[in-house]
Design a protein that fits this description.
9 helices, alpha/beta
Length: 259
């Protein structure tokens, strides 16, 4: 069976992805800052399934974290077959008023860590001519995000990079899948403050989103939207047709926290 490396695996979509992969009989490398949560997940999965779980407690906003992860896995002699870049966070507020250190960490995690992990593992995948990547982006990548300018921009980067890599690797057996979830019931909503906005009035379950993304990765899909209601799908379909000024006003209104 295949070994999957999952970042942000301690909770939410990442945790559900780990459960799905374990249920298939696959080994895991789970990465997050919360060592206690990772150890509990390791215990639960290894006691339920006949698999091995390797825990790496790491803050992916640190400059050398991704290289350290790759070096640790290489030294352990573990072959990674699936790379699942799930870790990320957001935050509400006007760009010029938000704490710069927080947004810098957002860029480090959402963009730099994901990009470097892809750069580290893809050569190995290409050399073996097998491997799958699932990058967790967001429907936020489809539009600008007033009140979440850096988060939306970071996810636009993830979608663009993922699609470009997918094409570059199209003559190999390595695939790159870009998953774009809608609002999902995870810790993300509370941490970012999005749970207090109308954008999170209807949320999908992390289990449903994770299953959609995992299946798309296995099938080698380029893009997949996950956890969207009918009204959300209809709204997204109108994005290319809406005048930019109206779209920006609508997005800003949707992301205003309620009192």
């Amino acid at each position: 069976m295949k070994t999957a490396l999952i970042t942000g695996a301690s909770s939410g979509i990442g945790k559900e992805l780990a459960k799905i992969h374990a249920s298939k009989g696959g080994d895991l490398i789970i990465v997050a800052r919360s060592g206690d949560a990772l150890q509990k997940l390791k215990t639960d999965l290894e006691s339920t399934y006949t698999i091995n779980v390797h825990v790496i407690e790491k803050d992916l906003t640190a400059p050398h974290a991704t290289q350290e992860i790759y070096d640790e896995i290489t030294a352990a002699g573990i072959t990674v077959n699936y790379l699942i870049n799930n870790a990320g966070f957001g935050g509400i507020g006007k760009f010029h008023k938000r704490d710069w250190a927080t947004d810098q960490n957002m860029i480090m995690l959402n963009i730099m860590a994901l990009t470097h992990l892809c750069r580290l593992f893809i050569p190995d995948f290409v050399n073996r001519n097998e491997g799958k990547i699932l990058n967790v982006s967001s429907i936020a990548s489809l539009m600008p995000g007033p009140m979440q300018a850096v988060y939306f921009a970071s996810k636009a980067f993830v979608s663009s990079l993922s699609n470009a890599m997918a094409q570059e690797l199209s003559t190999t057996n390595v695939t790159v899948t870009n998953m774009m979830p809608g609002a999902t019931a995870t810790e993300f909503g509370k941490v970012s403050g999005m749970d207090k906005t109308s954008a999170f009035d209807q949320t999908a379950t992390a289990e449903n989103v994770a299953q959609t993304g995992y299946d798309a990765m296995i099938n080698g899909a380029i893009d997949v939207k996950a956890g969207l209601t009918f009204s959300q799908k209809a709204m997204i379909a109108t994005i290319p047709l809406a005048p930019k000024k109206i779209l920006l006003q609508m997005m800003e209104k949707m992301q205003q926290p309620r009192e």
